[in-house]
Amino acid sequence: MRLMNFHKVKMVLLLLLSTCWLPAYAQEAAEPRALVEAGVQEILSILDAHQAQAQSLETLYQQMSQGLEPYVDFRYISARVMGKYFRAATPEQRTAFAQVFQQSIVRTFTQGLIGFEYKTIKLLPALNQERRYPDQDMVDMQVETQSGQNYPLSFTLRKDKQGQWQIINLVVNGINLGLTFNSQFDQAMREQNRDFDAVIAGWNPAVNLDQAQD
Predict the structure, then answer these.
(1) Structure pTM?
(2) 176: number of CA atoms within 13 Å, CB side?
């Protein structure tokens, strides 16, 4: 079991970036666990730079979005969020939602900077079990807060056609974010009488991160 100790980094930003923001050498055919560990290290320099330079949130939003693009399959995730409605959407609507989805995710989790602090992060041992899908893998982590509470993280990675791993889902303390967003998209479609344009224009996902910290 590998143990990494960091201080005064906000947990919610960690939950997103520890799974997604990886350094340049992540483009090599590295294993998912190695990418996650490298990503945690990368978070520190990004957050330190933000704090040291007193950057605006808009600047941080842009930096996060640009940094995430090579490592998070936003188009794949957004298609899963659209779920059963995906095939009925036009290519333009699919692209528009992928863009809006990426922007909303980046902003939602960046705003979580005011979240509570943590004490340690543990990259948990890999489970010796057969993968459900040969092109997917899961990596588990555990976050310990300053008060001694532990919160599990579990994220799913998918190997694309070029053989590179990308993030496609995250579960925070039992809250499956992919399923949460899918449920919200379905509700929005029903409320808007299946008007894709209206749903995309009004997309503003709600994630009760407090539940993940209770």
Answers:
(1) 0.78
(2) 9
